[in-house]
Amino acid sequence: MATRELKIFCGNSNLELAQEISDYLGITIGEANVKRFQDGEISIGIEESVRGADVFVIQPTCAPTNENIMELLILVDALRRASAYRITAVVPYYGYARQERKARAREPITAKLIANIITTSGANRLVAMDLHAPAIQGFFDIPVDHLPGVPILAQYFMEKNLKDICVVSPDIGGVGRARNFAERINASLAIVDKRRPEPNVSEIMNVIGELKGKTVILIDDIIDTAGTITHAASALLERGAKEVYACCTHPVLSGPAVERLEKSVIKEVVVTNTIPLPAEKKIDKIKVLSVAPLLGEAIVRIHEDLSVSKLFS
Q: Which of 112, 160, 163, 194 does the annotation list as catalytic?
């Protein structure tokens, strides 16, 4: 496979990240004309030969989610019809990942539907970061490389040299991620017990773990409306924490999120660039780390048929 030409293409969802990855790899982004017709339909033209090439399409499916998903699908289909040897969809943020199960009768499992249509479009492989539910890997009938964001976030906090740290998961479902993070920075672990009476609304019920006098780092995969993370931060200070930091892989930051973070007791919010942040969301409290080196190295290893998991061992 390494003898085949490596090519990178991207849609419009995160051009800055795609450029960082191509710079890391030392190659230029492939020529693709991605535009809209007057009626809003997507038009894509591949402007260079990809016959026999090992092609990677970089396209997180963040907001506008449906537009970005369609760009990804049409790009993959165009590359397949242009005789690319292998097509890997690099989807740092996987939209609809939070609709991965039936919580009530007659609900869809949309994360599975998206997996089906990505595969049907012609993708031979998927690369994603911090899927909201790791079981989503099993929704695909093609290989999936699932990259964790924890090592990037942990390295940043290790370099800050904070003392007496407690890592806190804002819910029971994120305990595995928080434990991994805590082990990497040699910190203790605590858990926030919450309930969610309706989507995007959370209530803090209890905190499990010792917090008094500690520097707390809240970690989650996604910060969406920031209700959970800001409520948790306040509850942790009330229970004796000295100061609170927060971090996540995917800064969705929809609705009132930025305003809530700005007004919150959180000292710093550390995120990655799996999702691009527009200028109005780049407040002083938010620190953005790049995932380009990680994704670039994963692409090299996939291209050369090497182990991707060894990146994290």
A: 194
Using CA atoms of 306, 51, 75, 5 in order, give the dihedral in degrees to the nearest 10. Answer: 30
Instruction: Report the amino acid identity of residue 103.
Output: A
Task: Identify whether 194 is a catalytic site residue.
Answer: yes
C-alpha span between 273 and 157 (Å, rounded): 17
Q: Residue 2: what pLDDT?
A: 57
pLDDT over 70 (residue 195): no
**Residue 270 predicted with pLDDT over 80:** yes
Question: What is the pTM assigned to this prediction?
Answer: 0.94
d(CA 143, CA 236): 40
